[in-house]
Design a protein that fits this description.
By secondary structure, this protein is an alpha+beta fold. The protein is 26% helix and 27% strand.
Length: 383
């Protein structure tokens, strides 16, 4: 958001704090526990939400220069995103045409010599545009193949507003503006194009990916679950919720927000007094705080297992030594809070869901973000 939008958001949050309330949904939502545990629904989710729906890859700064790549296979389709020499992006199914090995050796990095990818299995080589340009022992061992037809299979990738999206299904395309549905206005000005990618932490959880996502969409639990951590910095059960198509955003006021009453509006530093959770359907949260932003991407593995990628982005590359160590320690602390407080409790919730007792999960009017995620899931899946 630009400065004036941030100022208006602060005013809304100050009003909510003054009135000791939050944005409310129209009614209480009921979710059958079967929606979390049904294996048939899980298989439909894997296809409709993670194969046939555009996926947020990350901000543009994850692949800043020509030859930089970002790779992941958590949708079920191995995906390779590559920055081209003209600064555009291309995406491919990350499967070598020979025996099917992935072309990268880590989740992000630089192509060899900044120009080519070489399969680690037998050395078949591709350029940044996915064209097959080298086959060791090719004249004798593969004398009948047509190399022009054996390049990497392209995927629809789109980059706009400092964000990268890809369609995992090679037979489908998408419209990035339709996918974002205006959320880009909320996210503008936060440095998605030029921040420094500090890295990502991978966390496996032994419960449904939807239980994982539920934790991000409400501030109702701060006072109780995070009494010694987040609740010491932000108000509990206070949020300004706004929907953008299938997506939404939630502003959260810092405990110190009322200090602004004594400061002229022109001197306000809004990001010091609020944080913002931005949900990109179906599985991504972008968390914007004062001096940086984080992304959390959640993917299903089985009905009872999921994986989270927690990434951090800083305004500038930290200096080696003490500055980097401080940022790394902060990054680890945030991750540890999620694991020790949120995930440990959700693991216990999962045991209750699997108990075989027919019941409803209740989502309150003060939890509009949770309601929206499940409402959109039902719509896409045709429930």
């Amino acid at each position: 958001m630009q400065r004036q939008q941030l100022v208006e958001e602060i005013k809304i949050l100050m009003d909510l704090v003054e009135r000791k309330t939050t944005t409310l949904a129209d009614s209480v939502m009921e979710i059958d526990v079967n929606e979390y545990t049904n294996p048939e629904q899980f298989q439909r989710e894997k296809i409709e939400l993670f194969r046939n729906y555009p996926q947020f890859v990350g901000p543009s700064c994850v692949v800043p220069e020509s030859g930089d790549y970002f790779a992941f296979d958590d949708t079920g389709v191995p995906i390779l995103i590559v920055r081209q020499e003209d600064e555009s992006l291309k995406a491919f199914v990350n499967i070598c045409s020979h025996r099917g090995a992935p072309l990268n050796e880590c989740d992000h990095g630089k192509a060899k010599k900044g120009r080519v990818f070489s399969c680690p299995y037998h050395g078949w080589t591709y350029d940044l545009e996915g064209k097959l340009i080298g086959v060791p022992f090719g004249n004798e061992g593969f004398d009948t193949i047509d190399r022009d037809t054996l390049g990497l299979r392209p995927l629809d990738v789109q980059e706009k507003y400092g964000m990268i999206f890809v369609m995992p299904n090679p037979d489908k395309t998408f419209d990035i503006d339709e996918t974002l549905a205006g959320l880009q206005e909320r996210l503008s000005g936060f440095g998605f194009e030029d921040h420094y990618y500090l890295g990502a932490k991978q966390v496996f959880t032994d419960f449904s990916w939807k239980l994982n996502m539920d934790t991000f969409h409400e501030y109702y639990h701060f006072e109780f679950l995070h009494a010694e951590s987040i609740a010491t910095m932000a108000y509990s059960n206070t949020a300004h919720y706004k929907q953008y198509g299938r997506n939404h955003s939630m502003g959260s006021p810092a405990l110190a927000i009322n200090e602004l009453k004594d400061i002229p509006e022109g001197q306000w530093e809004p990001r010091e007094y609020a944080s913002f959770v931005n949900f990109i359907f179906p599985n991504t949260v972008i968390f914007v705080v004062n001096d940086h932003f984080q992304t959390w991407r959640v993917y299903p593995i089985t009905p009872d297992r999921s994986v989270v990628y927690h990434s951090m982005f800083l305004p500038n590359r930290p200096q080696e030594g003490e500055e980097r160590e401080q940022y790394e320690a902060y990054f680890q602390m945030i991750n540890d809070v999620a694991v020790s407080e949120d995930y440990s409790l959700v693991d216990k919730i999962n045991r209750g869901l699997k108990a075989g007792i027919e019941r409803k999960v209740l989502v309150g009017r003060n939890e509009p973000g949770v309601q929206n995620m499940h409402r959109q899931l039902r719509e896409v899946l045709g429930k």
